[in-house]
Amino acid sequence: MSKREEAIRRLEILERKEMIGAAKQLFIKKNTIPVFERTRLGNIVYGTIFTLGEVSQFPEYKEYNLKELVSKFEEKNDAVVYLATTEKAEFGLLIDLFYVTKYEEEWPMDIENLKNNRQLVYTYNLTNPYFSERGTIRFSVNFGGVLRTE
Question: Under DSSP, is residue 28 helix (H, G, I), strand (E, B) or coil?
Fold first, then answer.
């Protein structure tokens, strides 16, 4: 199985968790990375889906070349990014990259983590790149969007 096929498999798992099917369709048919932008409406927090290109046009992201950032990450790590989430934290503007590694022996563990709302991601701190890091995050699927919870 290729990394791209594995990425589609992971999007299908998230789709079964009630993530809107548009994310998988953007990845497959438009060949772009779906991005869930953290949105707050009163006390309700949800993720709104956009393409990587659309998010790149938001005023707060315009100074960053997100497509280049993702391409360099994929090339450097021989990985396929299939989903991203964004958020504005007190320590910077963040984008979490969900990806498939080149190490196929890790894929079954990644799938189990995904089913349990955990995933190894690379978090770019766009404001302060020194604080970018790889790590496991927890996420929830709310209102059809993926949100980082810790």
Answer: helix
Q: What is the pLDDT of residues 86-123, one digit of tens each?
A: 888 888 888 999 999 999 999 999 999 988 888 999 99
Examine the pLDDT at 45 and tell me if it is beyond 60.
no
Collapse the DSSP code of 125 into the 3-class scheme (helix H, G, I; strand E, B; otherwise coil) and give the result.
Answer: strand
Report yes or no: 38 and 139 within 8 Å, Cβ to Cβ.
Answer: no
Neighbours of 28 (CB within 10 A): 13
Q: Check residue 127 and give its pLDDT.
A: 92
Q: What is the DSSP string of 95-117?
A: EEEEEE-S-GGGHHHHHHHHHTT
Q: How far apart are CA 50 and CA 54, in angstroms?
A: 6
Q: Tokens representing 88?
A: 């504005």
